[in-house]
């Protein structure tokens, strides 16, 4: 099922927003998951040229944080305009309120790592004119979604050319008992190995091994900033290329609204150019 919303800023008419200032199209779709035997909603933004072109487009996968859903980014920021600016699709899937975008051995039917890393790209590639290759996909997100983006990029390195995290909970250790982490990673005393394995800092060799472009940013007043600084230092120590940014701000929407423009600018640099379905980039 698809619900089409032309989200604009001037006039509301029959449930559709219109404005000459922006030409992107916002759709709400339901994307099925075979691994979880159910469908979840996602917001998909099409750039201004999509309707009048035969081109295929790269896709930015943008993940929400803990307690959020597929509507958050579009409701709280002007992220849709980035689809026009960078001529890309933006998909904002529903990752449940506390899935942490992992395939959990402890929470039944919580396979959001596979869902976002495998099932959603397959759906997008079959229902939209996407650049259906690694160089046509990037992934980022905020907080839980920042962890999720890096986790999924490392789990599916052939799916994504670049990954990012803003205010990411990149190391769950130290936050035991919070935000549903125990539900998806297990008792931290009994399953310490799972918590260790999921910490991004313990998996950074994958960024270099798979040549994943990487950007990480965090506010200086964010409660996750210490973990992000440790990740940055570990990447430096191993000589792993990345961009790391700290800016004034905390763990909040004003910070994320400012950050997403930087993230999109960085990630879109790695997209291949794809002018025709019959003439894919190498």
UniProtKB/TrEMBL annotation:
Pfam families, A to Z: Esterase
Parts forming coiled coils: none
Transmembrane segments: none
Keywords, in A-Z order: Signal
Superkingdom in the source lineage: Bacteria
InterPro entries found in the cross-reference section: AB_hydrolase_fold, Esterase-like, Mycobacterial_A85_antigen
Signal peptide: 1-23
Protein name (database record): Esterase family protein
Originating organism: Bowmanella yangjiangensis
């Amino acid at each position: 099922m698809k619900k089409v919303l032309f989200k604009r800023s001037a006039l509301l008419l029959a449930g559709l927003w219109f404005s000459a200032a922006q030409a992107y199209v916002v759709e709400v779709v339901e994307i099925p998951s075979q691994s979880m035997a159910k469908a979840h909603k996602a917001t998909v933004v099409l750039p201004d040229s999509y309707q009048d072109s035969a081109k295929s487009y790269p896709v930015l996968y943008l993940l929400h944080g803990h307690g959020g859903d597929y509507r958050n980014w579009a409701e709280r920021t002007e992220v849709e305009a980035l689809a026009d600016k960078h001529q890309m699709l933006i998909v904002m899937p529903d990752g449940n309120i506390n899935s942490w975008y992992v395939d959990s051995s402890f929470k039944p039917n919580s396979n959001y790592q596979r869902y976002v890393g495998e099932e959603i790209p397959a759906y997008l590639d079959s229902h939209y004119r996407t650049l259906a290759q690694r160089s046509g996909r990037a992934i980022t997100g905020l907080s839980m979604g920042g962890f999720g983006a890096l986790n999924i990029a490392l789990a599916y390195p052939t799916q994504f050319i670049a990954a990012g995290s803003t205010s990411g909970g990149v190391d769950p250790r130290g936050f035991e008992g919070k935000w549903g982490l125990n539900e998806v990673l297990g008792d931290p005393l009994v399953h310490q190995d799972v918590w260790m394995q999921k910490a991004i800092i313990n998996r950074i060799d994958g960024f270099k091994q798979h040549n994943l472009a990487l950007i990480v940013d965090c506010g200086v007043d964010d409660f996750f900033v210490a973990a992000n600084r440790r990740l940055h230092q570990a990447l430096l120590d191993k000589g792993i290329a990345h961009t790391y940014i700290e800016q004034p701000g905390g763990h909040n929407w004003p910070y994320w609204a400012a950050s997403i423009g930087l993230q999109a600018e960085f990630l879109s640099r790695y997209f291949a150019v794809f002018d025709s379905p019959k003439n894919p980039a190498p």
